[in-house]
Design a protein that fits this description.
single chain; alpha/beta; Aspartate Aminotransferase, domain 1; Aspartate Aminotransferase, domain 2; 2 domains; four-stranded mixed β-sheet; about 10% strand; binds pyridoxal-5'-phosphate
Length: about 400
């Protein structure tokens, strides 16, 4: 008998009819490889490694792209938020209202600067801040220092209502647009509607760096220069420290890579939306629409192209854990964003929240499942995902 020359991995792949990863960044990299490597080489040759002209060009490109006045490149989405809160002087004794159903950083940064996160429940359809809940929180905390809506999964929060409430109370709105660069609301681009906002270029975001990077955007020129000083230890001029800032600088290498990718972002968003539309049709054809709750598109009628950019395609699924392990066995990658709402996290016990206090956030944490969605995902792969989900409920 001839010896089988397949590796174990190849044999396993062969046994399973198809592999559908949650995300495969190599497919995005391949067609851009020579351009990206050329830029990396140019940075290496210049040895201008931190901030500098490439960063400035990228800041301008992002500001133009999202419709913001000013942009300040930083070391991560998390650092963007810490920097922003520090530059606003938000600290001990201050309250910042935000969502309990988001990535940890949104509230973690508030606590890190010494301020107190105030959670309000989410809207069950969009998973974004509930406007009635926000209204109640503002009545309880009229002196709150900021409202931080999160444009979760690439869909903008209800900014019209949020900005109106904020204006009534004189509280600035700072947008966590980490997952939403390019997302559009009838009032404007994600990140550029409030006083300030931020983006993450973590590799799994729609515009991903080759490591960590982020950006703050804001309306006011003077505040932008303050952000730039805070990004560099509050230094202005050199070795004279007007404020206590930090090192939140972005690498030139990251800016150079991101600059190559940015012109492709709209095309990638279109690819993500097309795949979302495909899922919708295929779930309907499979008779699964009554079983699953699909993502909503609240701004679809606004005429804005990028009304949802699907950083994630998140469904609510009965028997989520069993479905998830069925899909895993079938070679389909999924993820739970997020399994434990922030008000129930161990590190936030000191805030005194109880289980049951934010029922929609808690229910979302139990029911939601993110399916593979990325521009290179193929039609057979998507069909396979839908078939596997249909097979699970047929047998369940
Ligand atoms: C990714 C993310 C962040 C943090 O960004 P990093 O670049 O990973 O630090 C903050 N908020 C939300 C909603 C995110 O998804």
């Amino acid at each position: 008998m001839p010896k089988c020359r397949w590796t174990l991995r190849q044999r396993l792949t062969h046994l399973s009819p198809m592999q559908v990863p949650l995300l495969d960044l190599r497919l995005q990299y391949q067609p851009l490889k020579s351009q990206i490597l050329a830029e990396i080489e140019a940075v290496a040759d210049s040895q201008g490694l931190i901030l500098g002209p490439r960063v400035e060009a990228f800041e301008k490109a992002v500001a133009d792209y999202c419709g913001a006045e000013h942009a300040v490149g930083v070391s991560s989405g998390t650092d963007a938020q810490v920097l922003l809160l520090m530059a606003l002087g938000i600290g001990p004794g201050d309250h910042v209202i935000t969502s309990p159903y988001t990535f940890f950083a949104t509230a973690g940064c508030v606590a890190r600067v010494g301020a107190t996160p105030v959670f309000v429940d989410i809207d069950p359809a969009t998973y974004n801040l509930s406007v009635p809940a926000l209204k109640a929180a503002l009545e309880k905390y009229p002196a709150a220092k900021a409202i931080v809506p999160v444009h979760l999964f690439g869909c903008c929060a209800d900014m019209e209502a949020i900005l109106k409430l904020a204006a009534q109370h004189g509280v600035p709105v700072l947008e966590d647009a980490a997952q939403a660069l390019g997302a559009e609301h009838p009032l404007g681009g994600a990140g550029a509607m409030g006083e300030a906002g931020w983006f993450s270029f973590y590799p799994t975001k729609n515009l991903g760096a080759f490591g960590d990077a982020g950006m703050v955007v804001c309306k006011d020129a003077e505040f932008a220069s303050r952000l730039k000083a805070f990004r560099n230890h509050g230094m202005e001029p050199r070795y004279y420290h007007r404020w206590i800032g930090g090192n939140f600088r972005i690498d030139a290498l990251q800016a150079a890579v991101l600059q190559v990718k940015l012109p492709h972002l709209d095309g990638w968003s279109a690819g993500r939306r097309a795949r979302a539309a495909f899922y919708r049709e295929a779930f309907a054809a499979a008779g699964l629409v009554g079983k699953l709750t699909l993502p909503v598109e609240p701004w679809a009628d606004s005429g804005r192209v990028n009304h949802h950019i699907y950083n994630q395609f998140v469904i609510r699924a009965p028997q989520r854990e069993a479905l998830r392990s069925h899909l895993q066995k079938a070679g389909v990658g999924t993820e739970v964003y997020y399994p434990l709402p922030l008000h129930l996290q161990e590190c936030f016990q000191y805030l005194g929240y109880q289980k049951g206090q934010f029922p929609e956030a808690e229910r979302a944490a139990l029911e939601t499942l993110a399916l593979p969605i990325f521009p290179e995902l193929t039609e057979p792969q998507q069909r396979y995902v839908v078939d596997q989900i249909a097979a699970f409920y047929a047998g369940a």
